[in-house]
Amino acid sequence: MAFPIQRLRRLRSSVSIRRLVQETRLSTDQLIYPLFVQDGVEGKSEIASMPGQYRRSLPELLKETTEAFYLGIPAVILFGIPKNKDEYGSEGFDPDGIVQQAVRAIKKETPELLVMTDVCIDEYTSHGHCGVVKDGKILNDETLSLLVKMALTHVQAGADVVAPSDMMDGRVEAIRKGLDDNGYEDVPILSYAVKYASCFYAPFRDAACSSPEFGDRKTYQMDPANRREAIREAMLDIEEGADMLMVKPALPYLDILREIKDSFDLPVAAYQVSGEYAMIKAAAEKGWIDERKAIFESLLSMKRAGADIILTYFAKEMAQMLTEGK
Ligand code: PBG
Questions:
Q1: Could you give the domains of the chain?
Q2: Which of the listed residues 124, 191, 204, 247 should we mutate to test ligand 1's pocket, taking the one with most ligand atoms within 8 A of CB?
Q3: What does the pLDDT look like over 246-277, one tens digit per residue?
Q4: Left, alpha or beta for 324 (phi > 0: left; psi -120 to 50: alpha)?
């Protein structure tokens, strides 16, 4: 049966009927708020390419996490900016490093707020790569023990979830084993399973001063052209013990998100990355798009594509909008 019997506009005729038949809904329950914490500074400094986002000292971070908690945001993920960077990213696995301190402080202040940590050495290495570098090569197996150390110090400080983002092969297995051997078998791993070598991370690297000193990340992050490989990445991470999977970036990879969601039963997270944030901010600043509507629509598209969880720098704005019922 078709037109004129069928008229799809009937169910679009008022706000109330649209509310009834809406297929996808966003909720504050799904949000993870990424935050930068910087060692050895006071106050906070705005990230030039991410207006409204800051590198924060520990006291500033605590103000923000507490505010996020009272807005109903269930989780934050922390990125550290160390005082000094070196070849191995030592401050990243220092039990007294800035992220470890931050985890302890947040868990004390707001114990119910879930604290996740990004596990990767690039913010801490002088060369800016996510692995140990030797003769211009990024070494895989030599990096694993550093990642394990880092994850373990995060968990010892009280981190609820660790999220490896380095894309070394075998890191999930190594971290799972490292945690289990130390009695942390109940701490979940959110794997950045499908992470593309994307230009959309540029503002993040500006924030963390983590641009690679030479070359690029194409020998470890995925080729944006590849779809089947994403399935293999996810499958291997599940075999290695991942509890949740992430697809990153989000908006340019909604097809991948849907495919991962349909292929596996694990909760799937989408990361609306720094460049996606920056594009919305920049266009809104020029008055070319409506910021709130762009936030809503882009996050809704991730949910529709299959995301159970969304990491977004807009977490607070989104939570506020959802509370106001807009
Ligand atoms: C690596 C890491 C990066 C991001 C999250 N974890 C940077 C990179 O891979 O270069 C990017 C997140 C974003 O762009 O918002 N530690």
A1: 25-324 (3.20.20.70)
A2: 204
A3: 999 999 999 999 999 999 999 999 999 999 99
A4: alpha
